[in-house]
Amino acid sequence: MRVQLVDPSAFTPPYDRALAAALARGGAEVELVTTKFLYGPVPEADGYEVDERFYKRSASRGLSSSARLPFKGAEHLRDMLAFRRAPSDADVVHYQWLTLPGIDRRILPPTRPRVMTAHYILEPNASARAARSAAKVFGAMDAVIAHSEHSAKRLRDEVGLPAERVRVIPHGAFDYLTGLPEEKPLPEELQGAEGPVVLSFGLLRPYKGLENLLEAFTEVKGAELWIVGNPRMSIEPLHEAAALTGAKVRFVTRFVEDAEIPAIFRAADVVALPYLDAEHSGVLYTALAFGKPMVVSAVGGFPEVADAGAARLVPPGDTTALAAALRDLIEDPSAREELAAAARAAAAGPYSWDEAARLTLTLYEELLAGETGAAPDRAAGRP
């Protein structure tokens, strides 16, 4: 079976490349069609081909070029039309993202079946217009993959996709990070920890619930809190809140490259994801890969990971419950090890890339045999 995975803007290269490698191990001939990723190294191609055909001129200008994004905009339509016209022997085309979904859905190559992974569905309380737009994009596909039952329900109920077009295939744990050819030591800011470490990792954004985590930490004793990630919000209020906790709070507020991640996660005793809203999170799948106990909010697909025994679940925004869950784990090493064992089992089982590939290949085979769903019609958004 010949498969094209398509992520024109390289929005999720770790996911793209992990899935491509797993599909190749499962017996598929895989080509990843994307652009050059400019933010750091990516996993080497393992058993699959990579065609970085999109946005070559803008990518060549590098991140520091002020004209990179205008160049990318100018290249987009040309590159999408060239992709549509290019000869392809793929049996299945699997889209991870579309850069401009409303436009791109109209000019996709005619190869069927088409599959799309719903990494993002709709913002909370989305308007009817946004739901209609999503319906047109996802409706242009023969099948849509959701990473959780929660996301699948949103695709059915909010977007309006027929149930037979939606398939749940969990996101794999990012285990490639556990075996990097080169790792960097723990950042200087984080060395010399005193007591158990609670880690908050990833881009610093308002929906991550960092203020709630800091408030909860006023009730947590005998542990350090590490907040690590590139800011996408003002961090001054976080520093002010940290000063009120009475605890040791360390910040690393910059881009963290892959080579730094293993040392940070291995040093953590608990990973906290007190998100106020989310569908899923790359941080969660990184914590699974490193077998780390987690405290997570009951948002998106997080409860399904907690159901696997790999995390403690708390209501979003409930700082009292969050503090209690953190205290329990900090004070009870055996409880932490129980969660860690469940996380390792989940990463090796239902959240493994080989399992994701097996389910994905089964979906491809059913589509090729005409056993799943139906070809999208014009009302569902066919180009």
Task: Give descriptors for this structure.
383 residues, alpha/beta, Rossmann fold, 2 domains, seven-stranded parallel sheet, six-stranded parallel sheet, 14 helices, 13 strands, 38% helix, globular
Could you characterize what this model shows?
With 383 residues, this protein is α/β, with parallel strands linked by helices. The protein folds into 2 domains: 2-172 and 352-380, 3-Layer(aba) Sandwich (Rossmann fold); 184-348, 3-Layer(aba) Sandwich (Rossmann fold). It is built from 14 helices and 13 strands. Helix 10 (282-289) links the parallel strand 11 (270-273) and strand 12 (294-297). The longest helix has 18 residues, at 68-85. The model is unreliable at 377-383 (pLDDT under 50).
Q: Residue share in helices?
A: 25-40%
Termini distance? 25 Å
Question: What structural category arises from helix and sheet content?
Answer: alpha/beta
Question: Percent of residues in beta strands?
Answer: 5-15%
CATH C-level class of the largest domain is Alpha Beta
What fold name stands as the CATH topology of the largest domain?
Rossmann fold
CATH architecture heading of the largest domain: 3-Layer(aba) Sandwich
Strand order of the biggest β-sheet: 3-2-1-4-5-6-7
Number of helices: 14
Instruction: Give a short account of the largest sheet.
Output: 7 strands, parallel
- Stretches where pLDDT is under 50 for at least 5 consecutive residues are 377-383
Mean pLDDT: 94
DSSP strand tally: 13
**What is the overall silhouette?**
globular
**Number of separate structural domains:** 2
CATH superfamily of the largest domain: Glycogen Phosphorylase B
